[in-house]
Amino acid sequence: MSWGFLRDLLSGVNKYSTGIGRIWVAIVFMFRLLVYVAAAENIWKYEHDEFECNIKQPGCENVCFDHFFPISHIRLWALQLIIVSTPSLLVVFHVAYRENREKHNQKPYRNPGKIDGGLLCTYLISLILKTGFEIVFLVLFYKLYNGFKIPHLVKCDIRPCPNTVDCYISKPTEKMIFLYFLVATSCLCIILNLSELSYLIFKHSIKCNLKKYMKKQQ
């Protein structure tokens, strides 16, 4: 899979982010995207072939694997990275639209924390969407796999298995480490998104109150 588009997207949004937003971009790019491409993808690469049951009944291993792993961890991780980064397109499209209306080539917005109007609203919406997607995927991981864990052994009694069979998962400890890393970075991104959201709302509220105060003084 080519991650060039996602990298370019995050780099573009970084120009219009606050300091907290730049930290979020750095974490997504360095501790999530690069870890996925460099290490995690290879660990789950042959997970189906390395899933073994202590019986050679035709179809038993396939059915048991599909039951315990309806969606591969690594594919769900990739989907999470893509969907969580997608709301940033709202900011890119908004800036592109406003720049097309500008007579000069200067960037109209350099810091969303210092502007009002449409871009600030778009930026806040993107933060809310990113936070919501992160929470949805954490819940999805928990529900699909009965918690944030990877067992060494699973017992399967689904047809066409003739009885309860033991099935062994390859590299369970290594996979669990990366799964914990995934959950930790996702939680960190949620905290950063909520912090940036609170910061922008608080700063905008102060600015509005100052304007009202100045008008009253005048």
From TrEMBL:
* Coiled-coil intervals, chain numbering: none
Record-given protein name = Gap junction protein
Q: How does it sit in the bilayer?
A: Multi-pass membrane protein
- Which Pfam families does this one have? Connexin
Q: Could you tell me which InterPro entries the record lists for this protein?
A: Connexin, Connexin_CCC, Connexin_CS, Connexin_N, Connexin_N_sf
Assembly, per entry = A connexon is composed of a hexamer of connexins.
**Functional note:** One gap junction consists of a cluster of closely packed pairs of transmembrane channels, the connexons, through which materials of low MW diffuse from one cell to a neighboring cell.
